[in-house]
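It is worth pausing here to work through a concrete case rather than discussing structure prediction in the abstract. The textbook approach is simple: state the sequence, then state the predicted structure, then interpret. We follow exactly that order.
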Amino acid sequence: MWQQMICVVLVLVSPLITSLPTSSDAPALFAPGDHADAVSPAFTPDGNTVYFMRGSDQGASVMASHRVNGQWSAPVVAAFSGHWRDGDPSMAPDGSFLVFSSNRPATKDGQPIDAVRNGKVFKGQGMNLWRVDRKEDGWDEPMRLPDVVNTCNSTFAPSIAQDGSIYYIGCAPDGVVRPLRTTYEKGSYQKPYVVAVGDKNAKIRDVAIAPDRSFMVFSIKVDPEQPYRLAIAFHTAQNWTTPQDLGDVVNGGTHNMGSQLGCDHRTLYYSSDRRLPGQDANGANTDDHIWRISLTPWLEAHGQAEPATPSHCTVG
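Step two, the predicted structure:
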C-alpha cells in the first residue's frame, strides 16, 4: 500500500465512476496527535485495540494501541513485527487471526524479498502476505501464505471476510496488479480469482470488504495522472455495481488509501494527508493521519439494511 503514496494534482472524477450520494459530514480525525504518519488501521472485534502501519526511515512496522478508560495508549510495536518491513494489517472479523504484508524472507534462511517494477529491482521492497493466529496470551508465530496466494512479490493490502476468504492486491494471470480473492476451504487457501469491479483499465488498491461481502470500499483511479480516490461498490447476483465515488468531502488531500472497516462494519477508517482541523488553508500536511466517516448515507441510498452494531463493539 505504501508504494501508492504519491503526491499528484487534483483531477475531475472519471465518468466511469458515479458520484452520488455524498455525505455532508466531514471525516473525523482518529486519535489526534498520537497516530501521525499512520495507515491501515485494523480493529479487534470490541474496538478497543487497533493495529496499524507506521513508516520510518528504517522501514515500517505494525503498531498496536489499546483503549483504556476512553483514551488510546501510546503505540508500541506489535509482538510479531519490528524487524522486517511490515504493514497493511487486517483483522479477521472474529479476531482469531490477522493478515499483514511483509518483505520478510519467504524461507528461514532467505533474504528480504525484492520488488520488481518495470524491469527494475528494488532491494528488500517486495511484499508477501503473512498470517498470525491469536493465542490465549498473545500471538503465534507469523506464517507466510502459500505460493498460490503470493503469486508475486507485489502482494499486499489484505481484507478478511467472515467466511475466511481474503481480498487483496496481487498479480493476476495477465501479470497486472489487481484486486484478487482467495477462499479458505478445508484448512487451505485456494487459487485466487480476479475481483471484477470497475473498468478493467482502472487501478484499484486497498480493498476493505464487508464481513458479509455485501459491499467493499477501495481506492481507485482510471487516469494514471489522477490521485487515488475512495469509492464503494455493492455486490449483486450478477457481480459488483459500478464504483461510486465517496465525494470531495471524504476525498481530501493528495491521496486517500488504506481502507478498513470498524468493528461496527459501517464506519470507514482510512489514511490521508488532508489538512488537519484548524490548520491554515495554505498549510501543507506532510504526514498521513487516520480518519473516519460513517458509510450510512451510501448504505441507505443503496437500500441496504444498516447492520446492527455488535453489543461488544466500541467505535471511536
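Step three, interpretation. Residues 2-15 have pLDDT under 50 and may be disordered. Residues 276 and 285 are 7 Å apart (CA to CA).
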